[in-house]
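Justification of resources, computational component.

The compute hours requested in this renewal are based largely on the per-chain cost of generating structure records like the one below. Each record pairs the submitted sequence with a full structure-token output. That output is archived, and it is also reused by downstream analysis tasks.
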Amino acid sequence: MDTSGAQEYDRLQELKTFDETKAGVKGLVDSGLQKIPQIFVRPAEELAKDLNYKRAQIEVPVIDLGDLEKTHRHKQIVEEVRIASETWGFFQVVNHGISLNVLNEILDAIQKFNEQDVEEKKKYYTWDNTGRVRFNSNFDLFTSRTASWRDTLAISFSDPDQINSDDLPDLCRKSVIEYSKPVSNLGNILFGLLSEALGLEPEHLRNMDCSEGHRFSCHYYPACPEPELTLGTVKHSDLGFLTILLQNQIDGLQIFFQNQWVDVQPIRGALVTNIGDLLQLVSNGKFRSNKHRVVANRLGPRISIACFFSGPINMDKVFYSPIKELITEENPPVYKEVLLSDYMTKFFTVGLDENFLVNYCKG
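The structure output for this chain reads:
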């Protein structure tokens, strides 16, 4: 007798029941559960596959942005960015100009938002991806194979100079605004370095509107009673051009590098930077958008704030394709031209663990 339909129905019902609480994973933890619900348990074959991977003792490159304006240091930093972007697709930056106080305040504010009375959080719970402020647990809850052990507050800044903050939650309004401007400035600096690392003029990627607007995904990963059975975030690559990630001192971020999972050890005050799918596309594969994930942990909460630079997503008729200056007979286009709005819409209809760049953008 085929019971797959009944199993699928049970899963859907469990997803709906979880979603209807609007309390997220934090609500499950607060209920005192000792075993995680089935919707969070990874498939047996996936868990078995994980056992075959080595755990690397190597470290992600750390790039010191100090003295960037000095000619000899500038050239050295560009070279470090190029090597890291071509090999790892990840690096950590220090001496980036954002004060430790600003970083600590936004981490603290996001923790307070998630640990306040659940009725206050419910005011922001939505599945409307067009809203500026959105709180939920797993944007792909109903499309992914397995739910992830995290809750997320997403905040969009479609206009880099957006100062209207009335719609932001009270508990994190001040710190979000104070972090938004300097992290946007850092994004512009990094796009300049990445342009030079591609052999282009410093303004090239910025002139393509790669840094136009940004959005925060503020993740809250509660302590998990069975971390070996689930993930905080499934394996994926980021869809935009560039991501700048702030994390607290509880680890969990891993990069898949040379067929092994590498832990990204938190460095106080450092920001993790990674190449996104769109930057891999426009660089014609020269820069690497690498797969990464977040493991669940018995300690918690882990707090992270990802700032995504995904281009002018609210504008029609914006297309991206491999940069023509990088195309030669020996290096033909690897990816096709994509309409940004169509690209984004498609992304939000599939699970985070889909190989989106290859499936949708390969030429």
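Residues 173-197 form the longest helix (25 residues). The longest strand covers residues 214-221.
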